[in-house]
Design a protein that fits this description.
By secondary structure, this protein is α+β, with helices and mostly antiparallel strands. It is built from 17 helices and 23 strands. The strands form five sheets. A six-stranded antiparallel beta sheet has the order 3-2-1-6-5-4, sandwiched between helices. A five-stranded antiparallel beta sheet has the order 8-7-11-10-9, sandwiched between helices. The chain has a five-stranded mixed beta sheet with strand order 13-15-16-18-17, covered by helices on one side.
Amino acid sequence: MDRVEKLEGKNKQLQEQVLELQQRQEKHHLLFRQIADFSSILGVSIELSEVYHNCLKLFKDLLALDFTTLFLVTESPGTLMIHDTLGFSREMVGTFTVCRGVGLPGIVLESERIEVVDDFQTEKRFSIPDVIPQNNITSAIAVPMMHNGKLFGVIIGHTCTKKIFSGDEKSLAQILGNQSATTIKNATHIQSLRVSEQKLVQRTNEFETIFSNSMAGIMLLKGGRVLARCNQRLADFMGYATPEELQGADMRQFHLTEERFQEFGVRYYEALISKEPLTVEYQLCKKDGEPLWCVLSGKAIDTKSPPDLKKGVVWVVEDISQRKQMEEQLLESQKLQSIEILTGGLAHDFNNIITAILGNISLGMASIDQENPAYPYLLPAKEASLRAKELTQKLQQFSKETAPVCSVASLDEIIIETVDSVVTDSTICVEYRFSEDLWRAKIDDEQIRKALTHLLENSQQAMPDGGSIYISCSNFPNNGEIAALKAEYFVQVKITDTGLGIPEEIIDNIFDPYFTTKNRDSNQGSGLGLATVHSVIKRHKGFISVASVENSGTTFTFYLVASPPEGEIVETVVDEEESPSVVSKKGRVLVMDDEESIRDIIAQMLTLGGYEVVLVGNGEEAIQLYGERLNTGKQFDVAILDLNIPNGMGGVDTARELTLLHKKSKVIASSGDNADPVMEKFAEYGFAGVINKPFDFTDLLRTVASVVSAS
């Protein structure tokens, strides 16, 4: 009986052991299923924020936790930072850090093993943070997250009720922690690759945008100087429709000659090899065979030293053909300016010579009877001298801006001729609106053509994409509406374009010299064009105005003096071929001129005319002598003063001083420069008359007599 009882007891014990083994097996299966489920859930996402959330959610659910928080190791040694949390404030994410040995995560950072707190009220290892009592937390578990044998982070869970964590829970927590570390590490790597790929795509797109839209041409040469790639800008100024037309081309075709191709390679090879910055001005050959001035800046792609040029050379090509054209124009302008200066000097000296020649011929003709056998020989000599006088006047007109030499002309014909020579852009249409009974204008043909040219060029530049120019001419009887107009009849000219217009804030300045809205480095002028137009119209005793609306076009309106409708004025010309006669009045004359020959001929003419003459060479001598004569009662009746005295006081300053000595001084200005403003407006400078060099006997005596006899 005892034996049976023993066998039954042993059987019961075996059954209990089998049940315990079955229960353990079920737990292990559950653990394995949980780990498999955990791995599959973590593998669903590669976004870091989702991976963080999934790790904390699984950790919370598997261990029945109320709070879970993820700490990751920072770049600073011995420091952890919160990267995500479930339960605590989101403000802690990215800001809350702990150091080694501080708090429960700090202890794990130091020990690298699981640490638990059964009850925070009895915890003595560290100071309890405020968030623990604020959230009524009792227990906690902190798990090291290991990756490749190194601590990657700490995942920590909290419960509000007291909880003792079993060994199986700790094992599961450790597996979960390590799996989380691997998942987060992989996701971080994938995200880093994605960011790098995005940056690469962004940089590639940026490069392509810059390459395609660059204002400079770009070309990549590879192999034996073969054009592998270029942008649209290069194709444009080389005369090709697309970059593809150039790709694969041998660079020989872009050099003007084979010799220049070879020379370019030899000359600049060493600079590219040495990696020195290479910039050179060079002429490339366009598609149509025309040369193109450009600046080439090259650099080898290979970063080795020395670089392998066959791997590629990048060239940046800047079109400087307009700049070169401007430089040539500037050079021509400087040459022209030098010629003008030379011409002005020659005209001045030539005038003095002609004055002596014409003066002596006039004296000879005045000293002999017309029946004298020598008289017929003097007459053609005088005529030749007068033609030489006209030549010097033309030279002076060339050398500087001159007062207009007006004649009656058909303004509509001049406008059409000027348009035909200036407006050559086929995208610009010109329409004319001329009155049928249009009056003729009193103009200097050459100067008006110059003004029209500037206005038409201004309109063309305002319409870079083409447009229309409307030109109208109509009769304008002056009724006093425009204060600047003094004559009775005018021709009104309007030039309207459909261009960009002029901003309101600068329209009042456009006629100012050197004012311009154009880039100073462009080839569109220096800002003198409209100032020149204004000057020309003003010298013609006319008026010009402008009206404009930005982006809606501009209208220039100007007025030129017209010939009266009843008929043109016929100017009478004094017959200078008549025999000179002495028309003089006795008196004392002071003559100031720096040229001795001029002084002598004037003295001979005036003496022959019955005047007492005293000669001086500069203003200082004239003032001294004039003052001395005032004190003796033998004052001068008139003084003839040369305006230009190179080494002394000139005529204007001398006249001013003579007037201070004697308010009723009578002074005549003398100059070979007819364009001098003093000669045109002599009364404003204190002169009673003018004598233009060269002059003959009759001109001189008539002028002196007129001034002396004037009240």
